[in-house]
């Protein structure tokens, strides 16, 4: 009986040790879900027309300041005119801070959205800046608020990631990130409609959601030239939004 008891005790100790090692292996291998990245967007609430402004994004992951972001871009547009938005690449100032400078020469309310990709994660918070005459900004804001509510409700934010260089007859990957109410938009049906400038024929590319709010598809474009990518987003809750981006394909 004593021999059996000793054997059982040793077996329990061995199993416990194995369980602990497996737990440590899991933690060391990084299979646990990574901590999300957090972005604090700092923009002025009001500004004078024609004055250089500084927009900054402080990027952290847990208690760590992110110094190795893959991409930080600031998108700026006047409310109601997102089709003419401007993308500005940020400068890394250290301590997890990424900044751009921008001068706005026309009165109105402007949207500033940071697109941050770091450590295989993506987020894109946004804020608003009233520039110049308060009356002009408020009148435009009221008009835009009414128009957006009437046609789109809460807007969806898109960000298309594409290769720096696209060559004809080479397969490329296109990835779009979607957010709604500052949260990743999941479980949507996303398709890329790609057409060459001046031509009506289009390719329709299905995507797969590879992470929350991240949708990826592949395509091969056979001819060099300028292309338009229309990103269509739909879901079972009645969402139907789209936006357009451009691609340049070389020989």
Describe the structure.
The chain is α+β, with helices and mostly antiparallel strands and 251 residues long. The protein has 2 helices and 21 strands. Residues 143-153 have low confidence and may be disordered.
Question: Structural class of the secondary structure composition?
Answer: alpha+beta
Q: How many strands, what sense, and barrel or not for the largest sheet?
A: 6 strands, mixed
How large is the share of residues in beta strands?
Answer: over 45%
Element string (H = helix, E = strand):
HEEEEEEEEEEEHEEEEEEEEEE
List keywords for this structure.
alpha+beta, six-stranded mixed beta sheet, five-stranded antiparallel beta sheet, 251 residues
Structure summarized in a few sentences:
The protein is an alpha+beta fold and 251 residues long. The chain is 18% helix and 51% strand. It is globular.
Write the layout of secondary structure elements.
Blueprint: H1 2-29, E1 37-42, E2 46-47, E3 52-61, E4 64-65, E5 71-78, E6 86-89, E7 91-94, E8 97-103, E9 108-118, E10 121-123, E11 126-131, H2 134-151, E12 156-161, E13 166-167, E14 171-180, E15 183-184, E16 189-196, E17 202-206, E18 208-211, E19 214-220, E20 225-234, E21 240-250
Parallel strand pairs: 2-11, 13-21
Antiparallel strand pairs: 1-3, 3-4, 3-8, 5-6, 5-9, 7-8, 9-10, 9-11, 12-14, 14-15, 14-19, 16-17, 16-20, 18-19, 20-21
